[in-house]
Amino acid sequence: MVALTLLLALMVLLMMNIHLPAWNPDKGIPEIFTITAIESTDEITGHINFDSRVILLHRGVTDYKNNNLKARFFKNGQPVSSTIVTMNGHDFISSSHFGVQWMGGTGCSGATWSPGERICIDFSDGTFHPGEHVRVDIIDKEKDLVISQHTYLCK
After folding, report:
1. For a Cys staple, 123 with which of 13, 77, 96, 127, CB 3.0–4.6 Å?
2. How far is CA 114 from CA 9, 54, 119, in A?
3. Burial of 37 (0-12, 13-18, 19+ CB in 10 A)
4. Contact at 8 Å (CB) between 50 and 127?
């Protein structure tokens, strides 16, 4: 009876096409917020200038208060010289955000970062180059705990 219930629940989840966050069993940290792209071209001219715009997607199932989150980035295992003390766009404007030009997107525009929403973080030009492994840690500031970790190969 239990097996049948679990099988039916799995079938319902598959039919609903819900994207559950990936789980990294080696680290025990889920991949709730993932890097989907790192843009290398200038927005205006279209020329490659290693613009370093990182697109993050919320792949989880829970809303998060974006002002309770901060981000830490790594390049090839080394910390990136940047400061992102909030994922809330309004609060970000008045913060000291060294190494980052701007932040935008639906995930930072309101009070919450909801499933399916994106945030774009425009780092200083030349921060990321093709072939580099870029890792993002999203940290719950109240608990001082990494709640999501994802690594992306810059193309």
Report:
1. 127
2. 24, 18, 11
3. middle
4. yes
Q: What is the pLDDT of residues 18-65, one digit of tens each?
A: 444 554 455 689 999 999 999 877 777 766 777 789 999 999 999 999
Confidence of residue 141 (pLDDT cuts 50, 70, 90): very high
Cβ atoms of residues 147 and 139 within 8 Å: yes
User: Residue 146 is encoded by which pair of tokens?
Assistant: 């990494």
Going by the DSSP 8-state scheme, the letter that residue 84 receives in this structure is: B
pTM: 0.79
pLDDT for res 44:
72
First to last CA, the chain: 48
Longest dimension (CA), the chain: 62
